[in-house]
Amino acid sequence: MTNPDPIKTFYTDFHDKIYDKRFNSPYWTRQYAHRQIHAQFLPYIQKDQTVLDVGCGEGILSSMVAKQGAKTIGSEISAPNLQGAQEVSDNWGVQVTYLQADAENIPFPSNSFDVVLSSHVLEHLPNIEKGLQELYRVTKSKALIAMPTCLNPACWIILGGENYYVPNRRSALAFPLGIARTVQAFIQGKEGPDEGYAGSDVPHVWRFPWIMKRLIRQAGFTIEKFEAGPLIVPFIAEKSKAYQRFQQKLDSLRDKPVIQNFGYGSMAVCRKN
């Protein structure tokens, strides 16, 4: 696949390695956060539905959806990710069809799928509006859209340049720095603070929740439900079994008013008008 856009060129050869680094992370908090991000989609998928997972990465969500009995296709611009995705599906013993494709130009006719999924993908696109328009075009009725949003303490630590699961000497500095970057983006009228992806200068914006909602509605969708991603409390749950249980109970509140804006990312259940 040839991509003249430098951002798409970057991602075509980039391998996220999400399965090993995040989904199976040795750190409880990191593993929990990313498993919850994926599991959040599953209640909205029914057996025998046709599902397209746009920007499927290493196929974790695609495989989980297929395991529920949905007829699943995963599209992804990264060739190394697609290879990893096929390995995951094979190891899990599920059938998923994968293809290399650009999320801004999805190679399917309009109204092709019962449900279209987009899990932390749109923020990687050069043109997020075009990506949303494509999700709207190819779904028959429903889209489930998750994006990184910036009002959770774990997000602030990432925006400050550190991890959120194991503290180190720079963690105390990272937290206020991440808050400052978030406040600065708000004051400057930006959509959210830009982290940069994987240590590169490729944009990776953690949007404000109200900006995420606005972009989705501008694409033509009605938002039927808006939920916080996992309500991560940094560091504490890593070693405390009691706090791990509290963290799990806390996530039962993620669709409540106000609280729904403070997750490690957000998810919208969207209906095509």
Summarize the structure.
The chain has 273 residues and is α/β, with parallel strands linked by helices. The protein has helices at 6-12, 18-23, 28-39, 60-67, 79-92, 128-138, 153-159, 171-187, 209-218, 241-250; strands at residues 50-54, 71-76, 96-100, 113-119, 139-147, 221-228, 266-272. It has a single domain, classed as Rossmann fold (3-Layer(aba) Sandwich).
Q: Describe the largest sheet.
A: 7 strands, mixed
Give the domain tally.
1
Low-confidence stretches: none
What's the gyration radius in Å? 18 Å
DSSP strand tally: 7
CATH H-tier superfamily: Vaccinia Virus protein VP39
What characteristic shape results from the CA principal axes?
globular
CATH topology: Rossmann fold
Q: Give the strand order, joined by hyphens, for the main sheet.
A: 3-2-1-4-5-7-6
How many DSSP helices? Answer: 10
CATH architectural type: 3-Layer(aba) Sandwich
Assign the CATH class: Alpha Beta
What value does the average pLDDT take? Answer: 94
What is the first-to-last residue Cα distance? 33 Å
Helix/strand order, N-terminal first: HHHEHEHEEHEHHHEHE
Question: Overview of this structure, please?
Answer:
This protein has helices spanning 6-12, 18-23, 28-39, 60-67, 79-92, 128-138, 153-159, 171-187, 209-218, 241-250; strands at residues 50-54, 71-76, 96-100, 113-119, 139-147, 221-228, 266-272. Helix 4 packs parallel to helix 5 and helix 7 (153-159) crosses helix 8. It has a single domain (6-149, 206-235, 251-272), classed as Rossmann fold (3-Layer(aba) Sandwich), CATH 3.40.50. The protein is globular and about 50 Å long. Helix content is 37%, strand content 17%. It has 10 helices and 7 strands. Strands 3-2-1-4-5-7-6 form a 7-stranded mixed β-sheet, with helices on both faces. Strand 1, helix 4 (60-67) and strand 2 form a beta-alpha-beta unit. It is α/β, with parallel strands linked by helices and 273 residues long.
